[in-house]
Amino acid sequence: MTPVLLLAAEKESAQVTDWAARIGWVVGLALFVALVYWLMREGWKWRGTLQGDLPELPTAPDDPGPEKLSLSGRYHGSTTAGQWLDRIVARGLGTRSRAELTLTDAGLDVVRPGASDFFVPAAQLREARLDKGIAGKVLTEGGLLVVTWEHGDRLIDSGFRSDHAAEHNAWVEAINSMIETNTREGAER
User: Which portions of the sequence form the region Disordered (predicted)?
Assistant: First the structure.
């Protein structure tokens, strides 16, 4: 045999897969993802602890009066007023969910299946406006109904998106008109 053929016959092909290294990488990646998830969860709990001075959320009165408006859609979260990235997580306000809003003379009732319901008394309403984003949710210009209200010593912005975005303008007008009427009546007293 020629020397070239002998060299070719003696070589064996390299092992294609190093299973030990591959399993090590997969386990390492899984541990890294678990660590990041745990850190995010701890950060959420820490933020809730920092906001622990937020009073209990009011509940709707037994007889809130006749319904002015109702809306079905999504609750996207609450933030410190004017700071659209400073999410409030205490008292369940950070939980995104479906929402049913009802506006009456008594105030704004927010019913959230799977999350804490809350009520904003009419005297605590400060402003309603259309905006494009709140706490990690960005929509088209005017795609979000933002209601500013006072709770304890804080002003809070809560963001809602109706299933029918055309309803937003009617809500802004109704809430702002209600605030103006309450302010005028309070000044006359």
Answer: 53-75
